[in-house]
Amino acid sequence: MRPTGPVHLGHYHGVLKNWVKLQHEYECFFFVADWHALTTKYQSPDKILPATWDLVIDWLAAGVNPGSANLFIQSRVPEQAELHLLLSMITPLSWLERAPAYKEYLDQHRDGDNASFGVLGYPLLQTADVLAYRAGLVPVGADQAPHVELAREISRRFNHLYGTEQDFASNAEAAVRKLGKKTGKLYSELRLAFTRYGDADALATAQALIREQGSLTLADKERLLGYLEGDSVAILPEPHAVLSASAAKMPGLDGRKMSNAYGNIIPLRAEPDDVARSLRNMPTDPKRVRLSDPGNPDDCPVWQFHLVFTPENEQVAVSEKCRSAGWGCIECKQCVVDRIVTEQAPVRERAKHFEENQDLVHSIVAEGTEKARDAARATLEEVRDAMGLAYR
Ligand code: SF4
Questions:
Q1: What is the pTM of this model?
Q2: Residue 9: pLDDT over 70
Q3: In this structure, are 102 and 224 located in the same domain?
């Protein structure tokens, strides 16, 4: 997540709640993408450092637990930058030029700023962010899914260039036998389910199965990971996107998508009075001019907040009161303000604890950074070896 402003309610529902869930299901690496922030905010670097610590406090307040997940800062892991550089040698320029985010940037800056190399290389840096940890799954919104697809293409290209091995198939089969009868059979069934029927869950299960085999050598693990998807050693396994399941899109105070870039956010840690003021000023269904006019929730951004914060079994009543002019917009907004403030209360309390204990926040990040560096160092050793740079 880029440190470009406070976490807002849209992030909280679309991203952080998902992280909190994922941290109990997988080994997770969550980092503040300060290099990525520089791609578009390079003229205001003074904002990055305070925004970084604030972001970590927002995560902790939202329930991301350093006992379950590694929290760190991107620029504290120089191995990611090295991997970015090395991958840039094998990535065709055209792959980066066709990335949707780059095209969008060019569209939005037709008469101003020229794109820097950092903007063009943004998805490649994202690829390095993922592959440095040999991540199996990447939680992203639908707009970022093409970047995970690019990471897959680059890892495939890397493995094809540097992971070919004579007698690969027989070496892989020998590695399957080393798994033992039961696990080897399970691996083969999962591999078949993926290669024959494209079952992505089977692939993810097989990858997890291989990663947890403590007795296998690293070379055999890479063989078996590669054997799941192709015919070369998976030095950099292909990652997969996990799309966030947030059904409702949270609108900003002006009705557009909530975004720091639009300045229309409600921060996760906003004071209750500010939440109330923000909601009071939000536009509603423009056709509802008088109290006696029936409204249409589908044309009102406030309704999107009800979809997120009001319990499902009460949403029908809210909608009906709007459609029948059974209540005014002020009352309807107050109802959602109360829900938001109630949900924020424990988050704000946890945030206060971390705001008052900045040393604790710094040590959480230092510990997460060490673990992240260990994982990235191990990957880079393999990558340097494969690319002929293993000076010892
Ligand atoms: S009653 Fe609520 S949902 Fe209906 S227009 Fe007013 S604020 Fe929007």
A1: 0.84
A2: yes
A3: no
Measured CA to CA, the distance from residue 26 to residue 375 in angstroms comes to 15
Task: Tell me, yes or no, whether 153 and 302 share the same domain.
Answer: no
**Cβ–ligand 1 contact at 39 (below 6 Å):** no
Q: Whose C-alpha lies nearest to ligand 1, atom 6?
A: 329
Largest CA distance in the chain: 80
The candidate with the shortest Cα–Cα distance to 79, out of 132, 122, 134, 35, is 132
Cβ(285) – ligand 1 distance below 6 Å: yes
Nearest Cα to 72, choosing from 131, 130, 31?
A: 31
Residue 248 tokens, joined: 């409702």
Range 167-193 average pLDDT: 93
What pLDDT is recorded for position 247? 47
Ligand 1 atom at shortest distance from the alpha carbon of 300: 8
Q: Relative to the CA of 297, which ligand 1 atom is closest?
A: 3
Q: Is residue 3 included in any domain, yes or no?
A: no
User: Taking the mean position of all CA atoms in its chain, how far away is CA 162?
Assistant: 28
Cα 172 to Cα 135, 270, 387: the distances in Å are 21, 55, 22
Cα(309) to centroid(ligand 1), Å: 15
Count of domains observed in the chain: 3
pLDDT tens digits, one per residue of 347-382:
999 999 999 999 999 999 999 999 999 999 999 999
Domain identity same for 283 and 325: yes
- Is 29:133 a contact under the CB 8 Å cutoff? yes
CATH number at residue 308: 1.10.240.10
**Alpha carbon of 332 to ligand 1 centroid (Å):** 6
Q: What is the pLDDT of residues 15-69, one digit of tens each?
A: 999 999 999 999 999 999 999 999 877 878 888 999 999 999 999 999 999 999 9
76 in the same domain as 14: yes
Higher pLDDT, 14 or 342: 342
Token duo for residue 241: 């996107």
Residue 52's nearest CA partner among 7, 12, 83 is 7
Specify whether 157 is located in the same domain as 182: no
Residue range of the domain that includes 374: 9-163+235-247+358-386
341 and 362, same domain (yes or no): no
* 48, 110: one domain: yes
